# Entry
Amino acid sequence: MNSYIPLIIGMALVTYLPRLLPLLVLSDKKMNPSLEKFLYYIPYTSLSILLIKGIISAEKDMVLATIAGILIAGFLAYKKDNLVLSVLSGIALSFLIKLII
Amino acid sequence: MTFINKNKTKYKDAFMVSLPLIIGYFPVAMAFGLLSKNTSISFRDTSLLSIIVFAGASQFMALDLIAAGVSSGNIIIATFLLNLRHLVMSASLAPEFKEIPRKYLPLVSFAITDESFSVYSFNKDKISLPFVLIVNGLSYSSWVIGTMAGYAVGEILPSSLQASMGIGLYAMFAALLSPELGRSKKILHISILSSLIYLALFYSKLFSSGWDLIIAIILSSALAVAIFDRRGGKYE
# Structure
């Protein structure tokens, strides 16, 4: 087996720096209101985008199960506001669908 | 007494918030460990990937690229592009992490992932140093232990179960987002806008994967400010 240590260290550095630098630079500054708004929207835009990405990049036989899992989790969270229940129901429904098709 | 009770609630909160992360990470990490074994990567290097990189999507991508014989330099560049989105997520968390002492930021920022970022963004009122350390620690442990477990015994799980458990993380994203969509028309419109922008970028293939993610996030958040925060706009 090859050793991948240099690769792993490189991957770790390019992953860690984008996580660290904005926190260090921005956390003690007063921000301009537009930038603050922009940052405030990021959770909503990135979660929407990650969800769409999850659906369109799912394996062919997982597309339906993925969409169903997302929908039931979203619906239950909207009704009951219970994150764990929603996640487990999403997993259970997608497993059922995977069993059937 | 009240101090102790307050702390107890804090710990309980942190644990409850971590639970979906733990449940979501473990099976995905197991799948990663197993796939890494099948890519002929040693147990040590597989574990190290999860221990010091701790970024699910790029770890899976690295396996693909290693199997395809891509050079280490190019894998590192691809990892950088894919994980660049954490730049905006970390920036978005900066105002919420103001209470956390500066010397802890290098530790705390290590565990900013799509998932922990979402959990923090939707639990802003709970953020404190112990809260963040517990959530980070538990989710990180789940990822690392899951990886090792997957490498060691992953074969025994049926693949249909593994695949559907991987849905857990998307289910969590949906569960965090949907109450906000119901609460605010503005957020609903922003969500639709960003989905459409990402779809357009994805199918246009103008940018490589990684760039399309970060450009879509930045573009749609900037457009949201431009459209929804004008003076006298109908949403004000």
